[in-house]
Amino acid sequence: MKFTVLTLFPEHVQAGLGASVIGKALERGILELSCINIRDFAGNKHNQVDDYPYGGGAGMVMQPGPILRAYESIQPRPKRVVYLTPQGKTFDQEMAFSLAREESLVFLCGHYEGVDERIIDRIVTDEVSIGDYILTGGEMAAMVMIDAIGRLVDGVLSNSSSYENESFHQGLLEYPQYTRPAAFEGQEVPEVLLSGHHGNIDRWRREQALVRTLRKRPDLLEKAELTEKDREFIRN
Ligand code: 6GU
């Protein structure tokens, strides 16, 4: 899968995604990342890419010309262009799965007070927010999305860390995890996990995932994939 990021801070994005699982997948060529500096397409002596807003008001607006020229430098022309903005649809796991099916994605990162509306009309297919708060620019949001989408691409995660088994995959929070030692300063690992009885362990984990979701994020239960047994457990 190929990610192209249109940004004023290409090194920031490159560095932010260079480590860990996504960094490895980039090295192995399973994922591709190309960061295009919008400023390279300024086309004026001072490399200016923003200007005052028509009608007045605070801040600066990114001009449409440099962004369009940066976009037009992408070959082949992409199908979907994601603009990172607090005004967008809120990113979630379902959207991550949907976007992970694309062969390539372009992310447009805005700065200052945003981009000229005409660039949104012209090239943007998806406006996406990563949550209800304001960031100084779209770069960190693009990195969040690329991390979440990239890990869903075949071959990025090892078999042992595959997302297929994640409880969040079914819309639930994860069950609690423990490793050695079995007793840590008087705190013991739940006995069922030491029992070797996989049927009991699976049931305990499922119940823990349900209890946690019910306590911490009851809103998630509405969309979760629950069995009749799950529903019965929640009722009791
Ligand atoms: Cl996608 N961009 C900016 N600038 N701020 C945000 C955001 C995006 N999502 C939440 N806050």
Automatic annotation (TrEMBL):
<dbReference type="InterPro" id="IPR002649">
    <property type="entry name" value="tRNA_m1G_MeTrfase_TrmD"/>
</dbReference>
<dbReference type="Pfam" id="PF01746">
    <property type="entry name" value="tRNA_m1G_MT"/>
</dbReference>
<dbReference type="InterPro" id="IPR016009">
    <property type="entry name" value="tRNA_MeTrfase_TRMD/TRM10"/>
</dbReference>
<dbReference type="InterPro" id="IPR023148">
    <property type="entry name" value="tRNA_m1G_MeTrfase_C_sf"/>
</dbReference>
<feature type="domain" description="tRNA methyltransferase TRMD/TRM10-type">
    <location>
        <begin position="1"/>
        <end position="223"/>
    </location>
</feature>
<comment type="subunit">
    <text>Homodimer.</text>
</comment>
<keyword id="KW-0819">tRNA processing</keyword>
<dbReference type="GO" id="GO:0002939">
    <property type="term" value="P:tRNA N1-guanine methylation"/>
</dbReference>
<dbReference type="InterPro" id="IPR029026">
    <property type="entry name" value="tRNA_m1G_MTases_N"/>
</dbReference>
<feature type="binding site">
    <location>
        <begin position="130"/>
        <end position="135"/>
    </location>
    <ligand>
        <name>S-adenosyl-L-methionine</name>
    </ligand>
</feature>
<feature type="binding site">
    <location>
        <position position="110"/>
    </location>
    <ligand>
        <name>S-adenosyl-L-methionine</name>
    </ligand>
</feature>
<dbReference type="InterPro" id="IPR029028">
    <property type="entry name" value="Alpha/beta_knot_MTases"/>
</dbReference>
<keyword id="KW-0949">S-adenosyl-L-methionine</keyword>
<comment type="function">
    <text>Specifically methylates guanosine-37 in various tRNAs.</text>
</comment>
<keyword id="KW-0808">Transferase</keyword>
<comment type="similarity">
    <text>Belongs to the RNA methyltransferase TrmD family.</text>
</comment>
<keyword id="KW-0489">Methyltransferase</keyword>
<dbReference type="GO" id="GO:0005829">
    <property type="term" value="C:cytosol"/>
</dbReference>
<protein>
    <recommendedName>
        <fullName>tRNA (guanine-N(1)-)-methyltransferase</fullName>
        <ecNumber>2.1.1.228</ecNumber>
    </recommendedName>
</protein>
<dbReference type="GO" id="GO:0052906">
    <property type="term" value="F:tRNA (guanine(37)-N1)-methyltransferase activity"/>
</dbReference>
<keyword id="KW-0963">Cytoplasm</keyword>
